[in-house]
Design goal:
This protein has 454 residues and is an alpha/beta fold. It has 2 domains: 2-140, 3-Layer(aba) Sandwich (Rossmann fold), CATH 3.40.50; 161-436, TIM Barrel (Alpha-Beta Barrel), CATH 3.20.20.70. The chain is 43% helix and 15% strand. The chain has 18 helices and 14 strands. The chain has helices at residues 16-25, 33-43, 75-91, 101-105, 107-111, 126-130, 182-185, 194-206, 223-235, 255-263, 278-283, 290-302, 320-332, 350-357, 383-397, 400-410, 412-437, 443-452, and strands at residues 2-7, 47-52, 68-73, 95-100, 116-119, 138-140, 164-167, 170-171, 190-191, 211-214, 244-247, 268-274, 306-313, 337-342. Strands 2-1-3-4-5-6 form a 6-stranded parallel sheet, with helices on both faces. The chain has a 4-stranded parallel sheet with strand order 11-12-13-14, with helices on one face. Strands 7-10 form a two-stranded parallel ribbon. Helix 3 links the parallel strand 3 (68-73) and strand 4. Helix 13 packs parallel to helix 15 (383-397), helix 15 (383-397) crosses helix 18 (443-452) and helix 17 (412-437) packs across helix 18. The termini are far apart. The chain binds cobalamin and iron/sulfur cluster.
C-alpha cells in the first residue's frame, strides 16, 4: 500500500514571515513519530512518504496515488489537521488515520475527521491498523516497554526540508509538572540503551547531517547515563557542529556532566526556569528552587553552554511584577535566548482539567494553543494584560543594545539572531495591536474587549 504521512502546521506558521522567523530561531527539524511509524511500515513492504507543512507548502493533488493518509496532530495544528483530513476524505475519497499528542488527548474530536484514530504511541498497532487487521474506530495503543525494539526514524522517507536530525534517547520525564503535556502522552519514563543511541548517531553522521539535536523532554534526567552517552560520542568521533537539548536546572550541580556536555558540543540548552517566585514553582510541582536557578545561570556561563531560558507566563501566584522580575533575572545572567511561554492548558494536562472545572477557559479554538496566546483567565491580571506581558518580555529582553553585548559573549551569528528576535518582538506588538482592533472573532479582539468591558 502507499501511505503518506502529513505533519500539518497552523495557518500562522505557514506564513512567509513566520517561516523566515523560524529560520532565525534554529535549524529545520522534524518530529520523529511519522518517521518511526513509516519505518515500521516500510519494513513490512509498504511504500511510505512523510511531509511536513512547517517548512514547505504542500500540493495535495500530488497525493492522489495514496491508499492511506496518516495525519499527526499537536493542539495548535489540529484545526489544520482536520481541514486536511476532511479534504482528503470528502473530496478525494481517501482513507484517513489520525494520531499524535492532541488526538490522543481528545480522540472523539479527531474521529469526526478520520476513519480511525490511534491513541498514544503508535508503534504497537500501526501495521495492523493500516493492513485492516484492527478495525476499531478508536485504537488504544499500549506503550513500548523496551524502546530498543522500535526502528530508528528513517529520514529517507522525509520529502520536505530538514537540516538537523532529532534523537529521542528517552521517552517522557521522571517529573510531572502540572502544565506539561508530554509526560502524560509519553508515560512512564523510559530510556534507550546507550548502544542503540550511538548506532543512530553513526547513521546520521554517515548520511551527512551536520547538526543533531537531543529532543528528549529532559536529556539529563539520569545524569550517569547522559555522561556515558557523551563519553561515547567523544571517543567514537560522533560530535556534531552544535547539539541542542532540553535540560533541567538540576544538571548544574554536576561539573563533570557540564564539562562533557561542552566537550561533546551540547552547547545550547532549553531549561524551564518558569518563574523566580517560589510559590509559583511549587504551585506547578516543579520541584526546583531559586538557588537551583541561580546556580544554573552561573554554571552554564562558566562552561560556555548557551542557555535558552524558558519562562511560563500566567501562573496563578505570579503578578506582572513577578513576571518582570523573572525576565530581568534572565537578562542579568546573560541568557542566550528567552523563551516566554504563555501558560497553555493543553488537553490531557491537570491544568486543563482544573481550568475547565473552574470555568476559566476563554477559547477552545486549538490553533491559539501554541504558547504565544492567552487562552484562559489568569488570577492576578486580566487576560489582555497577560498578553501584553508576553510582548513586554520579548521587548525587554531582545533590545537593539543587547545584540551588541551578545556579540561579545557569543559571536556574530548570535548577534544577528538577537537582532532578528528584536524585530520579532516589535512585529508581534504591531500584529497583536492591529488584530485586537478587528471585529472578526480573533483572540486578541476577544481579550481586548473583555478588558474594556470591565
Ligand atoms: C521536535 C519538536 C518540534 C520541532 C519540529 C516540529 C515539526 N516539524 O512540526 C519544532 C521545534 C519545529 C517544533 C515546533 C512546535 N512545537 Co514541538 N515539539 C517537538 C518535540 C520536542 C519532539 C517531537 C518528537 O519527535 N516526539 C517523539 C515522537 C516519538 O513522538 P510523536 O512524533 O508525537 O509520535 C508518536 C505519537 O504521537 C504517535 N503519532 C504521531 N503522529 C502520528 C500520526 C499517525 C497517523 C498516527 C497513527 C500516530 C502518530 O505515534 C508516534 C510514535 O509513538 C515535542 C515533545 C515530545 N516529547 O514529543 C514537542 C511538542 C510536540 N511541540 C509542541 C509545541 C507546542 C510546538 C509549537 C506550537 C511551539 C511554538 N510555539 O512554536 C510548534 C508547532 C509546530 C507545528 N508543526 O505547527 C508541544 C505540543 C503540545 C500539544 N499538546 O500540542 C510539544 C509536545 C512540546 C511541549 N511543549 O510539550 N516542535
Ligand atoms: S521537568 Fe520539563 S519535561 Fe519534565 S515534567 Fe517538568 S516541564 Fe515536563
Amino acid at each position: 500500500m502507499i501511505i503518506k504521512f502529513i505533519v500539518p502546521a497552523s495557518d500562522i506558521r505557514r506564513n512567509f514571515l513566520y517561516r523566515a522567523g523560524g529560520s532565525i530561531y534554529g535549524h529545520m527539524n522534524s518530529i520523529t513519530g511519522p518517521l518511526i511509524l513509516g519505518s515500521i511500515l516500510k519494513n513490512a513492504g509498504h511504500d511510505v512518504e512523510v511531509y511536513e507543512e512547517l517548512y514547505k507548502n504542500l500540493d495535495f493533488r500530488k497525493f492522489d496515488d495514496a491508499d492511506v493518509i496518516g495525519i499527526s496532530t499537536m493542539s495548535s495544528s489540529s484545526k489544520r489537521a482536520y481541514e486536511i483530513a476532511d479534504m482528503f476524505r470528502n473530496k478525494m475519497g481517501k482513507r484517513v488515520i489520525i494520531g499524535g499528542i492532541h488526538a490522543s488527548a481528545l480522540p472523539e474530536e479527531a474521529l469526526k475527521h478520520a476513519d480511525q484514530v490511534i491513541v498514544g504511541e503508535g508503534e504497537r498497532v500501526i501495521k495492523d491498523v493500516i493492513e485492516g487487521n484492527i478495525t476499531e474506530k478508536i485504537v488504544y495503543s499500549a506503550y513500548i516497554e523496551n524502546l530498543d525494539e522500535i526502528p530508528i526514524p528513517d529520514y529517507t522517507l522525509l520529502k520536505t526540508p530538514c537540516k538537523a536530525a532529532n534523537i529521542l534517547s528517552t521517552r517522557g520525564c521522571p517529573y510531572s509538572c502540572s502544565f506539561c503535556s508530554t509526560t502524560r502522552m509519553f508515560f512512564p519514563y523510559r530510556e534507550r540503551s546507550v548502544d542503540s543511541i550511538i548506532k543512530e548517531m553513526e547513521i546520521y553522521k554517515k548520511s551527512g547531517f551536520k547538526y543533531m539535536n537531543f529532543e528528549d523532554d529532559n536529556f539529563t534526567a539520569n545524569k550517569e547515563r547522559s555522561k556515558e552517552i557523551l563519553r561515547k560520542m567523544i571517543s567514537n568521533n560522533l560530535v556534531f557542529k552544535e547539539t541542542f537539548f532540553f535540560g533541567r536546572t538540576d544538571m548544574a550541580s554536576d561539573d563533570e556532566l557540564l564539562q562533557l556536555l561542552s566537550d561533546a558540543h551540547l552547547r545550547r540548552v532549553l531549561i524551564g526556569i518558569e518563574s523566580l517566585n517560589q510559590e509559583s514553582l511549587d504551585s506547578i510541582n516543579k520541584k526546583q528552587n531559586i538557588r537551583d536557578i541561580e546556580l544554573c545561570g552561573e554554571k552554564l556561563k562558566k562552561y560556555k553552554i548557551k542557555l535558552i531560558a524558558s519562562l511560563v507566563l500566567g501562573l496563578d501566584p505570579d503578578s506582572k511584577e513577578d513576571i518582570r522580575k523573572s525576565v530581568e533575572f534572565c537578562k542579568s545572567i546573560d541568557a542566550y535566548q528567552l523563551q516566554p511561554a504563555v501558560l497553555t492548558p493543553f488537553p490531557g494536562t491537570p491544568i486543563y482539567e482544573q481550568y475547565l472545572k473552574e470555568n476559566r477557559m476563554i477559547v477552545q479554538d486549538w490553533s491559539y494553543y501554541d504558547m504565544t496566546n492567552v487562552t484562559f483567565i489568569p488570577k492576578k491580571m486580566s487576560p489582555w494584560e497577560l498578553q501584553e506581558e508576553f510582548i513586554h518580555s520579548l521587548k525587554h529582553f531582545y533590545t537593539f543594545k543587547s545584540a551588541f553585548k551578545i556579540l561579545t559573549l557569543f559571536g556574530f551569528n548570535a548577534c544577528i539572531r538577537r537582532l532578528g528576535l528584536w524585530l520579532v518582538g516589535i512585529s508581534a506588538e504591531l500584529f497583536f495591536g492591529s488584530e485586537a482592533k478587528k471585529e472578526n472573532g480573533n483572540i486578541y479582539n476577544i481579550l481586548k474587549k473583555r478588558d474594556s468591558s470591565k
